[in-house]
Amino acid sequence: MFRNRFFPFWIFFAFIFSIGSIEVTAQKSKQQLEQERQVNKKKIEETSRILSETMNSQKATVGQLNALNEQIKTRKDMMSNINKEVVELNVRMGELEDIIEGMEGDLVQLKKEYGEMAHTAYKSQLSQNNLVFLFSAETFHDFVLRLEYMRQYSKARKNQMEMISLVKKTLEDQREEIEEAKQEKDQLLVAQMGEFQELENLQKKQKTVLAELKTRGRKLNKELKDRKKADEKLGNLIADVIRTELAKKSSAKKAAVKKADVAFVGADFANFRKKLEWPVASGFVSQGFGKHPHPALKGVVVENPGVDIQTRKQELVRAVHQGVVKTVAYVPGEMNTVVIVQHGDYFTVYAKLESSKVKVGEAVNAKDPIGVVHTDSDGKSELQFQVWKQKEKLNPQVWLRSR
Fold first, then answer.
1. 207: Cβ–Cβ under 8 A, 6 or more apart, which residues?
2. Judging by DSSP bridges, how do beta strands 307-311 and 381-389 pair with one another?
3. 82 burial via Cβ count (<10 Å: 0-12, 13-18, 19+)
4. Is residue 67 within 8 Å of residue 310, measured between CB atoms?
5. Other C-beta atoms within 10 Å of 161: how many?
6. Which residues are CB-contacts of 24 (< 8 A; sequence separation ≥ 6)?
7. How far is CA 337 from CA 272, 307, 340, 371, 374, in A?
8. Checking DSSP bridges between strand 363-364 and strand 336-343, what pairing results, if any?
9. DSSP class of 276
10. Given a cut of 60, is residue 73 above it in pLDDT?
11. Neighbouring-strand partners of residue 349
């Protein structure tokens, strides 16, 4: 009878456990958002350096526009991320406020019950002392029941005091946590305002560069024609290399050459879909695979046989997977120095290099240096990267790991 009159201990401990579960879930979500924010921060730092290098040019360039577009995109991602963090904090603060309200009610109830117990004990002491109460029992069974009652009553009072102390401590912790959440929210809102101002500045620069580029439509069209010619020359080179290697492979099969032959180095390439290392340590995809609208010329569509990765000056270009160097050549025009690496049935192409660090027939591993990226007269440092399976062009971004 006694235990049912007062605050059930198991309900409180279940409540404390539920608080812990909520905190664990919130912590996971918070960590994930913080990781995303750090990734975006790193991207912003990289594109800022690339943008500053392209801005050295006295005139507006496509490289500047690409870097500005990437900066704007990343800044928007950052603002979206911050907004998610603010929403998470608002939800968390609401949960904490509900917890605090519930615990304040529990504390009032516990204090009330303890007061009732203390009052009962006081009245009992006025009427008779404990020994009299015990020894006034008419039977031994009654004596044992009274003794057990006194023990349970004393234990209940002690437990009630411990419960009050525990609730007070937990309540203080929750109040501290909500205060920390409020401070964190204020910091995020300040950061969000800073990102918004940066975004506005970038959009103004983007508008200026785009307007200037549009006035130079004739020059941009000439650049497009030159790029198309360079793509054709590179395509012919790749086709020749692949044709030669396929012929060698066919002859090797007839001669029953073992798979230990160099032509089979990196033959597990197909297993590395979405896992390949990036050919440069920093940078962003300035133009993706396939057909895309020109960034400055309205109604003009460009087609890319690979991906262009805009990066920093003197950036080291690395092999994405183990293989054998099949070609080191110079392609007149925009493509400059080109390195082609074979990985069994697959080939990777690295164009727009300033210089190469490998020789034909040399075996390379993932991340091995194969060249240095070329920087053009506009200050743009950009790598053209392609992936082929025999005679078929593939989308390189499907093969590169996410970052």
1. none
2. antiparallel
3. buried
4. yes
5. 14
6. none
7. 26, 16, 10, 9, 9
8. unpaired
9. B
10. yes
11. 340, 386
Please state, in angstroms and rounded to a whole number, the distance separating the CA atoms of residues 301 and 345.
31
Q: How is 90-152 classified by DSSP, letter by letter?
A: HHHHHHHHHHHHHHHHHHHHHHHHHHHHHHHHHHHHHH--HHHHHHT-SSHHHHHHHHHHHHH
Q: Which of 338, 316, 335, 334 is nearest to 326 (CA)?
A: 338
Distance (Å, rounded) from C-alpha 75 to C-alpha 192?
A: 10
pTM of the model: 0.72
> What is d(CA 289, CA 63) in angstroms, rounded to the nearest whole number?
17
Strand locations in 229-368 (E): 284-287, 290-293, 301-304, 307-311, 316-318, 323-331, 336-343, 346-356, 363-364
CA dist 107 and 143 (Å) reads 35
Give the three-state DSSP class for 387: strand
Distance, in Å, from the CA atom of 111 to the CA atom of 58, rounded to the nearest integer, reads 76
Span 104-149, pLDDT tens digits:
776 677 667 666 656 565 555 444 555 555 556 566 666 566 566 6
Q: Which domains does the chain have, with CATH numbers?
A: 2-214 (no CATH), 218-398 (2.70.70.10)
Nearest to 288 by CA among 306, 275, 311: 306
pLDDT tens per residue, range 204-238: 999 999 888 888 888 888 888 988 999 999 999 99
Stretch (H or E) spanning 242: helix 217-254
Question: What is the DSSP-derived secondary structure letter of residue 389?
Answer: E
**Neighbouring residues of 305: CB distance < 8 A, sequence distance ≥ 6:** 231, 234, 235, 289, 386, 393
CB 351 within 8 A of CB 23: no
State residue 262 phi and psi, 5-degree precision.
-60, -25
- Which region holds residue 314: left if phi is over 0, alpha if psi is between -120 and 50, else beta? left
Residue type, 299: G
With contact defined as beta carbons under 8 Å apart, do 126 and 139 qualify? no
- What is the residue type of 174? Q
Rounded alpha-carbon distances, angstroms, from residue 255 to 248, 252, 320: 10, 5, 31
